[in-house]
Amino acid sequence: MGRDVDERKKRAALRKLRKAAALAEQGLGPPLSDWEKQFLEEVEERIETYGSAFADPLKGSDGEALSSLQQIKLKEIDKKARGKGRSGFGSGRKKPGGFNKRPVPRVRQLDDDIAEDLPETTSEPQEPPVRSAPKLVRASDLKPAPPDTPAPETQNAPTERPRPAFRVIDGGKQDE
User: Considering only CA atoms, which of 73, 76, 102, 103 is closest in space to residue 87?
Assistant: First the structure.
């Protein structure tokens, strides 16, 4: 027993399926795979027999002939039949932005010879540089910085702002 599907939506789904199959036969794009051909045939058969190509109401809207995933796959097949590329992750076409801007990581090849990368060493061992011990300096031993200009005392005092004035605005809530 089929679900109650609007006749217009049923005819529209069948028209889309048949149009995609006809475009694929014209050969504008790459040929459809066996799975895609079988998908078009079985979905068309289910719509004609039951009025809908899916039974689970959670997979699509009531009154629709195709589930949401079937509609997406039909759009992909239609684009392929028209000769247009796929969009999304599997398109193979790089779009500007995103992760494509990242530079290719520099990776060391395991088959490279390690001896070529090392600098040649001399027979004399090199001595490490000598470091002196840290010195303790008192704050009283430091020379104070000369003052550039004396600051006037008015700049150090906080500025006083006048108190805001209280105003009564006419037209507010009035007592009765």
Answer: 76
Q: Are 43 and 66 in contact (CB under 8 A)?
A: yes
Helix residue ranges, H only, the chain? 7-26, 34-50, 68-82, 114-117, 153-156
pLDDT in tens, 76-124: 998 988 888 665 555 555 555 566 667 777 787 777 666 555 566 666 7
Query: CA separation (Å) from 46 to 23, 49, 62, 102, 112?
Result: 21, 5, 16, 47, 61
| Residue 53 CB neighbour total at 10 angstroms | 27
State the pLDDT confidence band at 28, using cuts at 50, 70 and 90.
Answer: confident
The Cα 150–Cα 24 span in angstroms is 89
- Torsion 38-39-43-46 (CA) sign: positive
Q: What is the pTM of this model?
A: 0.46
The pLDDT tens digits of the residues spanning 107-166 come to 877 776 665 555 666 667 778 778 888 888 887 787 766 666 555 555 555 678 888 888
Contact between 44 and 17 under an 8 Å Cβ cutoff? The reply is yes
Place of tokens 């088959």: 111
